[in-house]
Specification:
This protein has 895 residues and is mainly beta. The protein is built from 11 helices and 47 strands. A hairpin with a 3-residue loop joins strand 7 and strand 8.
């Protein structure tokens, strides 16, 4: 029995026990009389739940109609999401994430989006020292709604809320038992998805309990089934370029590149001039478009009325995830083989630049993570409408991960040292032949290969105390206030395999990570009605918040936020907010050890001599790149990791908006919000492709990105052999744009209909990497490991509801975008507008059962080719790689 099967049985038993035991004491429970309405973006209780800032509210009904069972998939469809974020289709692009689901509001970075559950922070998730929570740690069945605040909120919630806040609000006071099961599959009959949801609740006279369980299993989709090979432009056409790490071995002989036998079992002494078209290795069959995953998530929530004025509450979440990915067979680099080595047919000393170790097959990545979260506290009333709440919040995430078929470089060198190795059967150190495909024997593989095993985790602890109520009455209404104290510490650690740390494992070298930050905070929030019931001033409110934070590593800081809400008439409300933000470097950004990885990278000097760009030609020649140089493959070994010299970043956010609900059109609501965000000393890792592109566009290689601290080239071949993408404090980031939302509820005959349409226009997003540098434009661009930043994104959903059925049709629009690193004449320079159409039909079977069927990507829209693609010849952080897929869901509810 697998680990996850055991946990599933345990969770089911625990849920059943909770049902039985609570039913026995049901008569002693009752509902809590304290009626609170807390709007995301404020700590003040309000009767008006429309909020004080631009927000998108995704209800439980909308989640069900979308047919999506993953939180991140729904959030990443929102127009306000952009850039790079983690999910199953781009698992290799999340730092230590590998299958961790995240959201990236505005595209400003996953670590600038604060994730909350019921208004409280969530521990980071992954395999150690991570920067954001795993969104799928919460069972889907218990989600009541998701509030997406698209506004800075550091003064309200503390650091990290620079881009906005995602607050997942759970169901409360649920009664009954609901079971749901879903199965989905793609048109290619792969990528099977299985989901089971259980929701149970019981209420009594003094409180109640709610419990939920979600089990998810997703099957693999091989990348080659969607993209048979990695494409690149040659002679004005797209051809398979593949990887220059060949299975025969690529070496330099007398200044010329040669390649050894590519046919397993063929002539072991054969070699010929290297040809990319003939010898390069197609990696796509050894990668996944969707990686398999199995997860169980549970939640238990309880509340109990201790006295008429004091109530207790508790929340417990547990998630176990098992995921894995395949990776291409490993590459051996810079193997020095002497002329006297009996395996060397050249008669000269040679250096094998790259040799793909294909004999053992692909490498296998694997991960297991456990995430726990506990919240416990008390709340109650004081006097008048004043209430208080005190809570402790503890979260811990632990993970193990590893990889099979990793070569020990020290042992590889031993197999080339004829003084200590032997060709005899059973030799302790066997001699190896790395010149020619299939020539590495099983005896050698058993000696040089091992399975790495890493461990790591994240932990978060906090104590909060809050009060809120009316200070006194003003002529226009009550002056409302909220205040509180917070203590929080966060810790992250990651311990790579010992051989990986020593650098003798033939994989990405990593150093251990360990770090901790502490914060003590106090905040005050006020909401003051200034005017009311006057001509053109139905209501005018001033909102303000200030937060003082004291960090053990970075000293103290004060952030503030001011908002103005002006209800001109009943149908028109204007709003404006201005706030400051503050974010300290995360544990991996600050303490992360240096690591290396082969990342998809575009070299601007590839075929530079035929580009017609005088500046590029001169720069590539000055770098010593040969005239006929062609990038050998599509990846470059890139150094990533932390930077202990990082300093906190600060932000300023301005939003101006209106809410229009015309009385002439019942059910119509229109919101328009302008946003302007400035981040100073921004912490950012500039992708290697972007650094190279900016460097070689600067006349005379004068840009600081051209320095040896950023990249170097091989004197033998001209290819990039060192590239750095470590984080630094950039000069500034600035973003401007407009959000538009339309909600219209109306009747079609006897049936109710609903239109929900949200659009984001990104007008400007520029990054100044350091003071005085030319800004790098991100708006309207895509690719190069950055993700997508099209000017336009939109998502519209139309539903018709009958007593027995509901039909929903939605369209997602991703606007045109230009490749970060391509020239206008290049294929894939500009990505077109892309529209994804989805539909669902749900029907009620009797009083308690429902069935729903749906199809996503109805017209099987293919992802466009992106020159500086991440995987699958496209940007998998922006586009759908799978194509059309359908699902069926059954639900039964016991009341």
């Amino acid at each position: 029995m697998s680990r996850i099967s055991k946990r599933l049985l345990f969770a089911s038993a625990l849920l059943t026990t909770a049902m039985l035991s609570t039913q026995a004491g049901a008569q002693q429970l009752a509902a809590n009389d304290v009626d609170e309405v807390i709007v995301t973006g404020s700590r003040i209780k309000r009767e008006d739940i429309t909020g004080v800032g631009p927000a998108t509210v995704v209800s439980q009904e909308q989640i069900a109609r979308a047919g999506i069972t993953n939180v991140e998939a729904l959030l990443q469809r929102l127009p306000a999401s952009a850039g790079a974020a983690g999910n199953q289709t781009n698992a290799y692009w999340t730092g230590n994430g590998y299958g961790t689901a995240q959201v990236n509001l505005r595209g400003l970075g996953i670590n600038r989006t604060l994730t909350l559950i019921n208004g409280r922070r969530v521990v980071n998730g992954g395999t150690g020292a991570n920067s954001a929570p795993d969104l799928n740690m919460i069972p889907t069945a218990i989600i009541g709604r998701m509030d997406v605040l698209k506004d800075g909120a550091s003064a309200i919630y503390g650091a990290d809320a620079v881009a906005g806040v995602v607050n997942i609000v759970t169901l409360d006071k649920y009664q009954g038992l609901k079971l749901s099961a879903k199965y989905g599959v793609t048109d290619e009959s792969d990528g099977g998805e299985y989901n089971v949801d259980v929701l149970w609740g019981l209420r009594g006279e003094r409180g109640g309990v709610t419990a939920a369980l979600t089990y998810q299993k997703t099957e693999v989709v091989n990348l080659a089934s969607r993209a048979p090979c990695g494409l690149g432009e040659v002679g004005g056409a797209l051809v398979c370029v593949s990887s220059a790490s060949t299975i025969g071995g690529r070496a330099v002989l007398n200044g010329q590149q040669i390649n050894f036998n590519q046919t397993p079992g063929g002539n072991g002494n054969f070699f010929e001039p290297y040809s990319a078209a003939k010898h390069n290795f197609n990696s796509n069959p050894f990668l996944n478009a969707v990686s398999p995953l199995e997860r169980i998530s549970t939640a238990f929530l309880a509340d109990y009325e201790l006295t008429d004025k004091v109530s207790l509450f508790a929340e417990f979440f547990f998630t176990h995830r098992e995921s894995n990915q395949i990776a291409t067979p490993g590459t051996l680099r810079n193997l020095a083989i002497s002329a006297t080595n009996p395996t060397n047919p050249t008669g000269q000393n040679i250096t094998v630049i790259q040799r793909r170790l294909a004999e053992p097959g692909p490498r296998q990545f694997f991960q297991e993570t456990d995430t726990y979260r506990f919240v416990g506290g008390a709340k109650g009333s004081i006097v008048g409408d004043w209430t208080w709440e005190a809570a402790v919040n503890w979260g811990r995430n632990t993970g193990i991960d590893g990889m099979t078929n990793i070569a020990n470089k020290e042992r590889v060198n031993n197999t080339l040292n004829t003084a200590i190795c032997s060709a005899a059967a059973g030799a302790t150190i066997p001699c190896a032949d790395y010149l020619g495909a299939g020539d590495v024997t099983q005896q050698v593989l058993d000696y040089i290969l091992f399975t790495s095993r890493d461990s790591g985790g994240n932990e978060q602890r906090s104590v909060t105390a809050d009060v809120t109520g009316t200070v006194f009455q003003l002529p226009a209404g009550p002056l409302l206030a909220a205040a509180g104290l917070v203590y929080r510490d966060e810790e992250g650690w990651r311990n790579p395999d010992a051989l990986t740390v020593l650098g003798i494992a033939n994989t990405n070298q990593q150093d251990p990570i360990s770090g901790k930050t502490k914060a003590k905070e106090a905040y005050l929030e006020l909401s003051a009605p200034l005017l009311a019931d006057l001509p053109m001033v139905r209501k005018l409110e001033l909102d303000g918040a200030v937060r003082y934070s004291d960090y053990d590593l970075f000293g103290s800081n004060t952030t503030y936020k001011v908002g103005l809400n002006w209800t001109v008439i009943d149908s028109l409300r204007l709003r404006a907010t201005f706030g400051t933000g503050f974010r300290i470097p995360s544990v991996p950004e600050l303490f992360g050890g240096v690591a290396e990885g082969n990342l998809t990278t575009t070299d601007p000097c590839s075929r530079y001599s035929t580009s017609g760009n005088a500046t590029l030609i001169a720069n590539c020649q000055a770098s010593g790149v040969p005239a006929g140089y062609v990038q050998l493959g599509n990846t470059v070994l890139t150094t990533v990791g932390g930077n202990q010299n990082l300093q906190p970043e600060t932000a300023e956010t301005l939003t101006l908006g209106l809410v229009w609900q015309p009385t002439q059109v019942s059910g119509l609501s229109v919101t328009v919000d302008y946003f302007d965000i400035k981040i100073k000393d921004a912490i950012r890792s500039i992708p290697g492709s972007t650094k190279l592109a900016v460097c070689y566009a600067a006349p005379g290689l004068t840009h600081p990105f051209c320095g040896p601290a950023n990249f170097t080239r091989s004197s033998l071949t001209g290819e990039v052999n060192f590239l750095s993408a470590q984080p630094s404090n950039a000069g500034m980031e600035q973003m401007k744009g407009v959000d538009v939302g339309v909600r219209y509820d109306f009747d079609i005959g006897e049936r109710r209909a609903s239109l929900d349409w949200n659009t984001t226009y990104l007008d400007e997003y520029v990054i100044t990497p350091f003071l005085g540098a030319d800004p790098i434009e991100f708006d309207g661009h895509i690719g190069g490991g950055n993700g997508g930043y099209p000017h336009w994104r939109s998502n519209a959903s139309f539903s018709v509801m009958d007593e027995r059925w509901t039909g929903t049709y939605s369209v997602q629009w991703i606007g045109k975008a230009t490749d970060f690193n391509a020239a206008p004449a290049d294929i894939g320079y500009r990505a077109p507008n892309v529209f994804y159409h989805n539909a669902q039909f749900a029907y009620r079977l009797g009083e308690s059962a429902d069935i729903a069927v749906g199809v996503d990507n109805i017209f099987d829209k293919k992802a466009p080719f992106i020159k500086s693609w991440t995987d699958g010849n496209t940007d998998t952080m922006t586009y759908d790689l799978l194509g059309r897929r359908g699902y069926v869901r059954l639900t039964y509810q016991f009341n």
